[in-house]
């Protein structure tokens, strides 16, 4: 939802904005208005079928469609801001740094318009080559990850949050359960199984885990469900639309994020904006203003996670204090502040 929020905030500030993206199984219309933003979709529909190799020829042709579509669209706009610069994820790991068809940025180079790339993920070792080559196709690059920005010597601009939407909401809560929410896709890298394991060790039957996010790894999901049943853990899985997420976060007594994501994940930032105490990994949660044991609890391993959860399970006053400080932290990351930083970069690129 970063692209939507940036586009919406820019629109509020008087800019003319449109979003160009791929077709998918959920959205295959050539044009539609989404939350007030004009969205154009072109190219080959994203295939999520069982035969993974089918995705590869689709991406080989996607750049051609991008180029043709962007040729028409860019005539109305002064600058393009790219949020998905590579197609690397659709190719085998050992070829990603060798693939010559790189994606959005390469298409933008051909249409000859000023452009900015924003990297939303930290590349693996086999992807770094493609990332570095993409940098040459843009006038400027940024990253939402501070460590990645430093490593690539590019601008750091974090994700933001709409603090008018994501905010504390009073509601009637079922006191039967202590709700722990984990907002993330269900996949091995998010380590939902670690949370399940620690809950079992705490032996607290009044605790319920609410996993919020789509299942992107069916095998991992199946194994996770087996573990939940075996350990007799109270857990539910759900998906929620973006505008429903504030209500979901406000159901929580605690939010836990055990993924290895380096930076400031949107799920963490949104939970903090809702005034919820968050536990996350110390080496992964890196952002200006993060203060351990003040606006968040940071842990390094399974043992520390267990201790931190035990503390917050038993200390309601501490949960409230951390939640209040978390809200103060999130206010400094409101999209209106973040978008101003992007506007400064736009001006610099256009003045070149």
Q: State the helicity in percent bands.
A: 25-40%
Q: Characterize the main sheet.
A: 6 strands, parallel
First and last CA, distance:
30 Å
CATH class term of the largest domain: Alpha Beta
Query: What percentage of the residues does DSSP assign to strands (E)?
Result: 15-25%
Estimated radius of gyration: 21 Å
Order of SSEs = HEEEHEHEHEHEEHEHEHEHEEHHH
Number of helices: 12
CATH fold topology of the largest domain: Rossmann fold
Please identify which CATH superfamily of the largest domain we are dealing with: Glycogen Phosphorylase B
Q: Calculate the mean pLDDT score and round it.
A: 83
Domain module count:
2
Descriptive notes:
The protein has 352 residues and is of the alpha/beta class. The protein has two domains: 2-160 and 335-351, 3-Layer(aba) Sandwich (Rossmann fold), CATH 3.40.50.2000; 178-331, Rossmann fold (3-Layer(aba) Sandwich). Helix content is 39%, strand content 16%. The strands form three sheets. It has a six-stranded parallel β-sheet, sandwiched between helices. It has a four-stranded parallel β-sheet with strand order 4-5-6-7, with helices on both faces. The protein has a three-stranded mixed β-sheet with strand order 1-3-2. The radius of gyration is 21 Å and the shape is globular. Mean pLDDT is 83; it is low at 47-54 and 87-102.
Distinctive features:
39% helix, 12 helices, globular, Rossmann fold, 352 residues, 6-stranded parallel β-sheet, alpha/beta, 2 domains, 4-stranded parallel β-sheet
Give a quick precis of the structure.
It is built from twelve helices and 13 strands. The protein is α/β, with parallel strands linked by helices and about 350 residues long.
